[in-house]
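Continuing the series of single-chain predictions for the mutant panel. This is the parent chain; the variants come on the following pages.
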Amino acid sequence: MKWCDVNNSILHWASEEIVVPYVSPVDGHIHRYFVDFFIEVKTTENKIKKYLIEVKPYKYTLPPEIPKRKTRGFISEVKQWGVNTAKWEAARKFAATQNWEFMIITERDLGRYK
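Parent structure:
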């Protein structure tokens, strides 16, 4: 992430180094979620904030629309939505225990962080 390398507010960042366990609603088993980024930031108030950040296309941050016919593609989307929401909830809880914040960033957000 070039943005992290050139931003003076970023003290530390890592890609896919934080692993969060979660229970998949599809199979009921514990899996490992490798969150996209961990970022440590110095705020304008001279405080340190830490974030777990997931980067996803916006369309994958919304539940699938229910079609007239429930096709295999739709069933697959529902399963993926269930897995993603389980991962994100686990990441939110994990981040809260560390006094960090979990964020999902989409292409709609990227213009704000240039």
